[in-house]
Amino acid sequence: MFWGFCAFTSRVISELSQPCEIPGRQSGAGSLAYTRWHTDQPIAAHHPVRLRQFFHHMTYCVAVKLKAGLVFLSDSRTNAGLDQISTFRKMIVYEKPGDRFMCLLSAGNLSISQSVREILQVEQLNDHEGGEPITIWNAKSMFDAARVLGSAVRHVYNRDGESLKRAGVDFNVSMIFGGQVKGEGMRLFQVYSAGNFIEATPETPFFQIGESKYGKPVLDRVITPDTPLDEAAKCLLVSMDSTLKSNLSVGLPLDMAVYEANALKSDKITCIDDNNPYFQMVRRTWGQKLREVFDSIEHPTWDGSPTDVPLMCEGSGRSQPLRKISTPKDKLI
Questions:
Q1: Are residues 209 and 275 in the same domain?
Q2: At 191, which helix (H) or strand (E)?
Q3: Residue 28 has pLDDT above 50, yes or no
Q4: Is the distance from CB of 240 to CB of 62 less than 8 angstroms?
Q5: pLDDT over 70 (residue 140)
Q6: Domains: count for the chain
Q7: Domain hosting residue 273, numbered range
Q8: In this structure, is residue 267 part of a structural domain?
Q9: CA distances from 99 to 95, 138, 181, 264 (A)
Q10: Is residue 38 domain-shared with residue 70, that is, in the same domain?
């Protein structure tokens, strides 16, 4: 891991040594140090797009909705440059036992997500039926609570959007919001920067935000609406381990919350660090079993040796082997 980080750092420094323009400053190496924001997104929006590949996603959050309940998991790493790696929790739980349980995960620009979370506590929507203003604490459905969250996102945009734009910073935030309000079933939403949102369905029972690609394959293979809660919790930890293994910008400690359907409260909330014995076992076992399964798969044969699963087969139509180009006169098509 150390040498992987060194190679990563070397690539970034190489990019930083290339001339680049920042408004109001001379171009040249090192300019990045003058423009830093705590963010889970690119550390300098004024820099060329080529730098965005290094710091595009600095977190990983995932949540699943099952018949048995909900599971939420988030990391806690955020970044404001190569030498400013910090820990900020991305999960917050809202609970009124017996009445409602809600969990919010956030990714994107840290200043924006923190502002949204703060405003969400007091954000209100007008009740079109003439009742008292709708908040997350009195909303009659998770859909209305998600509307309040969307309003909080737009509230922050209306307050800070223009200033951020003038500073060259994108208004970038994404959130997962789920839970249950008394009188209806569980619901899970993904909320975007515009305050709009989509809802999880039986066909798509999980949402991811941040650095999602490394942890998605195991979710696709394991998670269904019928998956038991404990199995789903294990699957999410494996998903997180795959992300931690492949991306240094995601880091421990982790926050996990497990909610049982219709409980309207949860005592299964934990913080997972390097010393957590269960997560250590998951990481060790998953790595070992993957290697064992990989080693058990038969090697491909190239010399016509007897096998029940030949790799080199006679194709038909477009499934012919690639044709070699041997001379300059050969046509590519």
A1: yes
A2: strand 187-191
A3: no
A4: yes
A5: yes
A6: 2
A7: 60-287
A8: yes
A9: 8, 9, 6, 6
A10: no
**Both tokens assigned to 61:** 């959050």
What's the whole-number mean pLDDT along residues 266-295?
Answer: 97
CATH number for 136? 3.60.20.10
Could you tell me if 153 and 119 are in contact, meaning their C-beta atoms sit under 8 angstroms apart? no
Pairing of strands 91-96, 77-79: unpaired
- The three-state secondary structure class of 159 is helix
- CA 110, CA 212: separation in Å to the nearest integer? 18
Of the candidates 240, 159, 234, 175, which has an alpha carbon nearest to the alpha carbon of residue 207? Answer: 175
Q: Which two tokens stand for residue 177?
A: 């919001």
What's the whole-number average pLDDT of the chain? 85
Neighbours of 87 (CB within 10 A): 11
What pLDDT, on the 0 to 100 scale, is given for residue 23?
Answer: 37
Measure CA 322 to chain center.
38
Residue whose tokens read 């840290």: 110
Over residues 48-77, the mean pLDDT reads 77
Element containing residue 257 per DSSP (H, E)? strand 254-260
pLDDT, one tens digit per residue, over 80-111 is 556 667 889 999 999 999 999 999 999 999 99
Number of CB atoms found within 10 A of residue 332's CB: 5
Cut 0.85: pTM above it: no
260, 229 contact by CB (below 8 A): yes
DSSP bridge pairs for 77: 87
Give the pLDDT band (50/70/90) at residue 298.
Answer: very high
Contacts of 47 by beta carbon, 8 Å cutoff, 6+ apart: 20, 22, 32
Q: Of all residues in the chain, what percent carry a pLDDT higher than 90?
A: 71
pLDDT of residue 11 exceeding 90, the answer is no
> Is 266 contained in some domain?
yes
206 and 271, same domain (yes or no):
yes
Residue 233: φ, ψ to 5° = -60, -45
